[in-house]
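Input chain follows. Return structure tokens only.
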Amino acid sequence: VKRYPRKVAISQSESTILTDMPYTIDFELNSIDSSDITEPYFPDLVKGYNLDVCKPKHDWQSKSFPNCNMFHETNLAEMKFLTSGTVRSVFELSESIDGNVNKFVYKNLDFNGRHDVTPKRIDQERKDAVVLERTTSSKFIPSIHAYCSTVVIMEHAPRDMESYNEKRLARNITISPLDRLKIGIHIASGVADLHSVDFIHNDLHEQQFLYQDGLFKLNDFNYAKPMYVDKNTNETCKISEKFSMGLFGRSLEELQYKVDYEGFTPVKPDKIDVWMMGNLLYTVLTDLQV
């Protein structure tokens, strides 16, 4: 049963049929000019699991929900640049209907030469879209309106938690303990709703929470990991190798792996998010950074 049921219109046409990942050897070799060639088989794109033992928990974790016609109907000339992140640029789209102006966010893979379009990059955008689609019942995760290859259109939010806190602290504005508790609940609810669809975020920090309509909403799932299960026992697999992120703010087990600590023990994937969420809650309660 969905806790916060709501309808999100992404197309006026028939329901989108699930499609397999469009990765083939021909696609990889003929369509992508990159030295960073990644195996086109979906599980190989998800590092950290022992694929001899583990498999995706759900078939849909390797599927996509494209509705590319929405982008052909979009007037890109009217887009307004907002910001850019590690791998994506963010634009604002406006749509006027009966005098009411609706704003949306258009996210696209950054084509300024920093990042090649590889199966790995395309899969990151696919994960972002599939997580947004699967969590449409959550009020603590933004709504998605369209997805195609390297682009998503999603709910608009005026600022993120980092800019919210920077402006507040610059003006010496304090918030009450009750409001800090509410923000903590927003953070924990977004993470819990994400874990409920068997994905982890894998990159939790202030910039990943958008402020909209009085709520902080968890966003940016292109570095997310699906949870895998043991092929025989169906128990959640632990991540035992190839942690993909840097060292800042990471869990103890990830740091142990990075420095080749002899006492390293594999960790359940959701515990990585819980560790990083603790860093965020500390910041919310104290206004200090970890």
